[in-house]
Amino acid sequence: MRIASLSDFLLQRIDRGGKAGTPRKAVNRQIYQVIREAILDQSLPAGLQLPSSRYLALELGVSRNTVTYAYDQLLAEGFLESRMGAGTFVADTEPERIAAAATPDRAGATPERDAGQRIHTGLSARGSQLVGLAGVGETQWGAFMPGVPDVTQFPNRIWSRLQNKYWRRSRADLLTYSCGGGYLPLREAIADYLRVARSVNCDASQILITTGIHQSIDLVARMVCDHGDHAWVEDPCYWGTRSVLRSVGVHTVAIPVDGEGMQLPLEDSRHPPRLIVATPSHQYPLGMVMSLARRRALLEYAAAHKAWIVEDDYDSEFRYGSRPIASLQGLDAHDRVLYLGTFSKTLFPGLRIGYLVVPGTLAESFATGLSELYRCGHTYTQAILTDFMTEGHFASHIRRMRLVYAERLRLLREAISFHFGDRIILTGGEAGLHLALGLPDHCDDIALCHAAGKEGIVVRPLSRYYLRPETARRGLMLGYGSVPDERIRPAFDILASVIKAHWPEWQAQAGRGVPALEPALG
Amino acid sequence: MRIASLSDFLLQRIDRGGKAGTPRKAVNRQIYQVIREAILDQSLPAGLQLPSSRYLALELGVSRNTVTYAYDQLLAEGFLESRMGAGTFVADTEPERIAAAATPDRAGATPERDAGQRIHTGLSARGSQLVGLAGVGETQWGAFMPGVPDVTQFPNRIWSRLQNKYWRRSRADLLTYSCGGGYLPLREAIADYLRVARSVNCDASQILITTGIHQSIDLVARMVCDHGDHAWVEDPCYWGTRSVLRSVGVHTVAIPVDGEGMQLPLEDSRHPPRLIVATPSHQYPLGMVMSLARRRALLEYAAAHKAWIVEDDYDSEFRYGSRPIASLQGLDAHDRVLYLGTFSKTLFPGLRIGYLVVPGTLAESFATGLSELYRCGHTYTQAILTDFMTEGHFASHIRRMRLVYAERLRLLREAISFHFGDRIILTGGEAGLHLALGLPDHCDDIALCHAAGKEGIVVRPLSRYYLRPETARRGLMLGYGSVPDERIRPAFDILASVIKAHWPEWQAQAGRGVPALEPALG
Question: What molecular function does GO assign, one term (chains A, B) (predicted)?
Fold first, then answer.
């Protein structure tokens, strides 16, 4: 699609708020993002001249600063280029986009190259990229926010009782800075849990208590990667992984996934990565399980090339109808796996407690690095969590929630089936807290999510999780964990009508079946 | 001093534990650190051949792996070099050490250069440097741990009451992920506080809630600095500042301090820094206040060169006997200051809540960066803290603790005076929670602290806070905040005898006065 009028194109896609309950993004960021997407999908082709910021501001009815901010960001990141006396043009980024798998992805390639232009915004090139490509949403609750458990079912009273026990008397060791890998009794409780529930080979000395997956990845990236090192990440992957890695100078190399998980380009050993980040138990966001053959190949490759593997095991406590998948770490005979987990999904995200299991040889260095970089604390919370685990509340909360989520998944599937029959492909529904719902390639999933947001439905576009825009599949990430049973059908009814409105063939082809995404998502 | 026998030298300095109550560092790290210090102070001169790891292990009575680990780290960092077939030698690092002010300091200069050697430890060059130069201690409580408030005086009951109020009913918004800059009512309470107490110009939209000074500096470094950018830091400075900056690829340039604070090399504008980190209200660790002339010069320099200033205002709530010093941020007419504060000193460190105040133009980007990088939460704790502040408990706790700390400072000064009269120079005692006690240049403050540790006294060597070892002054950092009144004198009595034992002239010159550190520390 070529865009005839940039201002019309923007007017259709920019939300200037007004509607209650829909927190909006700042208009300057929206302009930035819409133009960026349009450049990436070539709706705005290289060489096209953009209207002046003054003209565009008038057309959009916004202040000129708002437009200038967006233009400056895009200039700083190399999406636009300014030609002296002539105006602002879409830059030619095509050659870089052709370089595909096993080369650093476009956006992460050279954060420094535009350092000269960063004066515009006051941010560094990496800061500007971080904001421009941010994956975090401005809403963190509601149907169908993915990746969020039902925090209203958390056993407050039990937690509160344990909390009061610790607060009754002051214990200096729980209130001051922590050091080493965290509160030892908690590390012991986690090691016990992981050995049994996830077949992780570890003892307490290998466990580090972090504030969650982000801090764990950040620590790993700084401890084992230098600036310019390559990390293989699944494509699509979790936005946090790529943002954290890039912000510490690690180049993310997009590795495609298929039905067996990450498709390692094992024949290419010219540029072995320093790090390989994978979600073997439940690929994020698509949900497939990495096959045993792939697991073995991955472990062998890492051992042979001295690469470290990060196993992000973010939500595999919740698996419905099939046996839990054992961890990759448990298979590893060469101590190459760094295993990541979190209590964000099993208890509540605001707790900010996660853990990192490292090989014994790295344990002491990682513990020092953790204290040195983050100056940790929260030991009183770690003590409460220890009791929560050792008294059995953790295990029983997981058991209870597994039933709750299984029922919600059933209700959501039923709602989807009611509206779309089998004409829509779902993946990821064997475990976790979300489903990925596939849409045809020409469906604009970003516009769809935007429209859904206006109806009060939080939903994330699948294409945003891809590193290489040219291979991005369209679809929706639907979280069901936090949606009360009785809210699932009504919320999906609203979403279904938005989906149908953004699916041009829907009306025409109704009853005939719509081309689906089997090969890519299966 | 030349070292005759490396094994004897190490045996004298390595603690293999055994004594109760003195947590010890792993022997491999101790060996690493002792050798590193000796190379830096030239006790082990360049070109000297080291004993083989097998021989040294035998002499020390440790496993060979223990020695190999230390050697490998030192090789990876370039302190040692391995000559094929000949053995291991002290590397010639002299030329780099001569480059002084306004050039990146030695250790931070080129973290990548040894990337080829990092296979030894499995760590990256930056990870290895982080561990090798770690400033964090393994003990965080006890006389005279610096930088720690008396957490036993925290009003538990009030906190517990507020906590129970929030835990009684589940509020999903407090338990899930947070987004933006943190809990808005807390940002408002902090803005109100800072405007009045610290003369900071701000409103709530400019406040970002972080987990403390470390996260604040980390966010700033990634948002406004790229890899290879220069940051000016005071020399001496807080170890956390330099470790965090280096770990994200920012070169730390050591700027000396004198009685007026940071001595800006303003005439040198060939390499303006991207960032200038200062502690204007209470220089860390020496304690002087930056003069107004210097403040103005710093602000002008930053405005002219588009540098960002980080004002680390870590403990200026506690100022005794003189008026509080207004913030540098409040003087700034050009929006170049990023202001950092924390509740670690005013409430308790384990709380992990700090704040960052940024210019309005950066606020939105920083809020996005904060959520994107760290995936924040802890909103329930932020809500409790809000009530604690708005109900007046925060202000009254500070008032009460100011009296407590003033009395402890008096007791500590009295104890020092009893043992040393006026023959020892003290600085930093007008504010905060610690004193810096100066020692003659040939006193080995590291060995002294080590010996004090064996007597159960936690104390930190001043020389460790310097970036340029050749200018490091010797002394002790004495925290008095967390030491009960009645414990101060007995603890200092023990420390005094350790000091005297490490001060060769003490006995000889007793009564005549010992050369002091006036110019450097004053």
Answer: DNA binding
